[in-house]
Write a structure and sequence with these properties.
FAD/NAD(P)-binding domain, 420 residues, alpha/beta, globular
Length: 420
């Protein structure tokens, strides 16, 4: 009996991923008249926003919801839109630009050929002169190696968390205080759950700074900073390539937008712990440095983003109010022990808010650096015809955000179209 026929199709360019990066790339390819297809592994459009929890609101203000050819035009430019509204925004965008998306088509291998690339998927294969990697910054949930937690305790990554209702009754341990960890902790508190929180080193930040939402200044320094010699938020200004994976500021878009302060969470009843280290004799072990750790996360904004915002305001000659001086806060929990017995504390769930890693396992090319990041210059990789868009710090700090992905896609597609 002969094997079933495998479909083989050809196009000029294959775009891998139909999230914000893939759709922005599709927009610019269409503008340049480049034949292409966008391959998406998911069953529906909406990108990684579909992996956020039910109460999630976009962390960046509506004025930054802008992709090529479409931007937020509602009545609240300084507000924040929900997860479902964000998903709807991108579904409408894909329709508006008539993006040639193939859903339920996961790319499993990309290998070079004499004329370009062979792209293998679960739905057949493609031959293409060019390939754009646009699968985004949230590819592979990072989970710690086996730590010996009892199988009777539910463990989920923030990628799988949707609401407190999916968790069994009992207390919850949240590991990590990036944006997801802080916001999920608030979601659990609002549902009346007892929460333990393992503190990482992600910096706190004010939601508003010197008269504007903090993202206003982050955008300004990214986009206009180089005009004034302020390059710290450009990729060449990073002290190390490892800096591409640093935490974002600890803020939330919920409730009209607000800062997330760890000491305030503690006052509300959250049990704060140091950084998670592992298991020992049946107990979870944390670093015994909570006071120092809280001071570190509180100082991080002033030392970096605050200082850059101040430098930009001064260099650009902007009329902005002086920064508020934060009140000193020395609150600490009564107990800061470094060990935690899950059973004794009634903890029945652990939510790992430990971020994401890049996953380019489909590449049959020696293209990745020691961090698993494609070697490239402004999204143009070392292999002719292969490009990347939407990765953290592709060209600057905001490269993986809505407002940042469009310019990178425009540059990449200009280079791609020039290849003919």
């Amino acid at each position: 009996m002969s094997a079933p026929a495998v479909s083989r199709e050809a196009t000029n360019t294959v775009v891998v991923g139909a999230g914000q990066a893939g759709l922005a790339t599709s927009y610019w390819l269409a503008q340049r008249g480049v034949e292409h297809v966008v391959l998406e592994r998911r069953n529906a459009l909406g990108g990684a926003w579909q992996d956020r929890w039910d109460s999630f609101y976009l962390n960046t203000p509506n004025f930054s919801v802008a992709v090529p050819g479409k931007s937020y035009d509602g009545p609240e430019p300084d507000g924040f839109i929900s997860r479902d509204a964000t998903i709807d925004f991108f579904r409408r965008y894909a329709q508006d630009i008539n993006a040639p998306v193939r859903l339920r088509t996961e790319v499993t291998r990309i290998s070079p050929t004499d004329t370009g690339f062979a792209v293998e998927t679960g739905q057949g294969s493609w031959s293409a002169r060019n390939v754009v990697l646009a699968s985004g910054a949230f590819q592979r949930p990072r989970m710690p190696a086996a730590v010996g937690i009892s199988p009777g305790v539910l463990q989920v990554h923030s990628h799988e968390y949707r609401s407190p209702a999916q968790l069994p009754d009992g207390a919850v341990l949240v590991v990590g205080t990036g944006q997801s960890g802080g916001q999920i902790t608030e979601d659990l508190l609002d549902a009346g759950r007892t929460v333990h929180l393992s503190v990482s080193s992600c910096p706190e930040a004010p939601r508003r700074y010197r008269g504007q939402d903090i993202f206003h200044w982050i955008m300004a320094v990214n986009i206009h900073g180089p005009e004034y010699g302020i390059n710290a938020l450009q990729v060449h200004g990073l002290p190390s390539p490892a800096g591409r994976f640093l935490c974002n500021p600890l803020v939330s878009g919920n409730g009209g937008g607000h800062s997330v302060h760890l000491r305030e969470l503690g006052r509300r009843g959250v049990r704060l712990h140091g950084r998670f280290e592992g298991m020992d004799a049946g107990a979870l072990v944390f670093t015994d440095d909570l006071p120092q750790r809280l001071a570190l996360v509180e100082a991080g904004f002033r030392q970096r983003l605050g200082a850059l915002s101040d430098a930009y305001i001064k260099a650009a000659g902007l009329d902005a109010p002086e920064a508020d001086v934060p009140e000193e806060d020395h609150w600490l929990p009564a107990e800061t022990g470094a060990r935690l017995d899950l059973a004794a504390e009634g903890i029945t769930s652990v939510i790992w808010c430990t971020g994401y890693g890049l996953d380019f396992a489909m590449l049959d090319l020696p293209l990745l650096d020691e961090w698993g990041y494609p070697r490239h210059a402004k999204g143009v990789t070392e292999h002719p015809g292969l490009y990347a868009v939407g990765l953290p710090w592709l060209t600057r700090h905001i490269s993986a955000t809505l407002v940042g992905v469009g310019p990178d896609a425009e540059f990449v597609t200009e280079h791609l179209a020039a290849r003919g």
